[in-house]
Amino acid sequence: MIATARLVLRPPEPRDFDALHAMWSDPEVMRDLGPVKSTAHSRATIARHLGYGPSHGLGFQAVERREDGAVIGFCGLKPGAPDTPIADEIEIGWMFARAHWGRGYAREAAAASLDWAWANRDCPRVVAITAACNAASRTLMERLGMAWFADFDHAIHAEDSRLRASVAYAIPRP
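The structure corresponding to this sequence follows.
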């Protein structure tokens, strides 16, 4: 668990499913990330991230607002995706429900995740990837101190998808 002034990042629990699935099935949230998720795909996503805990000591976390316990996003660290420039590294990522955009929650959660990585992992850097068209994520990466290091075509997206052209960023250990 990671706590900040306004947020708690913790492993997702069954009670979080509705809030997370609502976020993942929102076409506006998913516009620059990938297709909206079905119920089954949302369950599989949660299971995959919970699985990173025992295998890697990582996994994206449910982001809960401290003031009311509402789950507003998903953020954390995971193993870098194979067949990308970040394979075998520690990847940071985030996603927040649309109603919570523009309030600094993503930056707060991501900065806390980076602090956790520096305190608990012996990695030379933390990396992130996104679609080249995802201006909001790229801006946050830069605000966190990350710098671009690669362009690539992400094979999880169809060749004609606007999301296939992707970028990789990294931040070195302070």
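The chain has a mean pLDDT of 93.
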